[in-house]
UniProtKB/TrEMBL annotation:
Protein name, entry field: Bacterial bifunctional deaminase-reductase C-terminal domain-containing protein
Bacterial bifunctional deaminase-reductase C-terminal domain mapped to chain residues: 87-174
Record's signal peptide: none
GO terms, biological process: riboflavin biosynthetic process
Molecular function in Gene Ontology: 5-amino-6-(5-phosphoribosylamino)uracil reductase activity
Domain of life, per lineage: Bacteria
Length: 193
């Protein structure tokens, strides 16, 4: 079974979006270089960011996200982002009316059930859990093996927190990856057990 990784771009003060759910400059690092990160040509990063990010993205089998993000993105028009095979959506509501049942999206109630379903689908590949409320719930439930952050040099002041509403202490190991790219610092921590 693959590892479970909580991941997202984050401001220096710990936010993944502002109060209006807007990322502001949090994704600017994805267009701040000259090395294409994907086939679209829209994402271009530094060589350091490419060497760190591309292999990680290639290792992801399933992404777990919340219904709020799914709704904000219009379900990525039924195509999982960044070439990922499946998306598991944590929700207590059914799929949207008219949703294509053949689309590789799975609607599951509760974060524990969602991660379990994602692990079934991913096999030995990585299960990525989006930072924010769902990621914080997975961390609090002891389901996260690793925390990855792309720390962007901006202070948002308020908004949606990287770890959601986690209200207990969780220890991480010392970072085993600390890499500086253009407009981003890539960090990786293993979760202490």
């Amino acid at each position: 079974m693959g590892k479970v990784v909580m991941y997202g771009s984050v401001s220096v003060d710990g936010f993944v979006a502002d109060e209006d759910d807007q990322p502001g400059p949090l994704f600017d690092w994805l267009t701040s270089g000259d090395v294409p990160l994907d086939g679209s040509g829209a994402l271009k990063v530094s060589q350091t960011s490419y060497d760190h990010t591309r292999p990680y993205w290639d290792s992801i089998g399933v992404t777990v996200t919340g219904r709020h993000v799914f709704d904000m993105t219009d379900g990525w028009d039924g195509t999982p982002p960044s070439g990922i095979d499946h998306v598991v959506v944590v929700t207590h509501r059914p799929a949207p009316e008219g949703w294509d049942p053949e689309a590789p999206f799975h609607f599951v109630a509760g974060v524990e059930a969602a991660v379990a379903r994602a692990q079934e689908l991913a096999g030995d590949r990585v299960v990525e859990v989006a930072a924010g409320d769902v990621g914080g719930q997975a961390l609090a439930a002891g389901l996260v093996d690793e925390v990855r952050m792309d720390v962007v040099p901006v202070v948002l002041g308020s908004g949606k927190r990287y770890f959601g509403s986690v209200d207990a202490q969780h220890l991480l190991e010392d970072p085993d990856v600390v890499l500086q790219g253009n407009r981003v610092l890539h960090l990786r921590y293993r979760v202490s057990r």
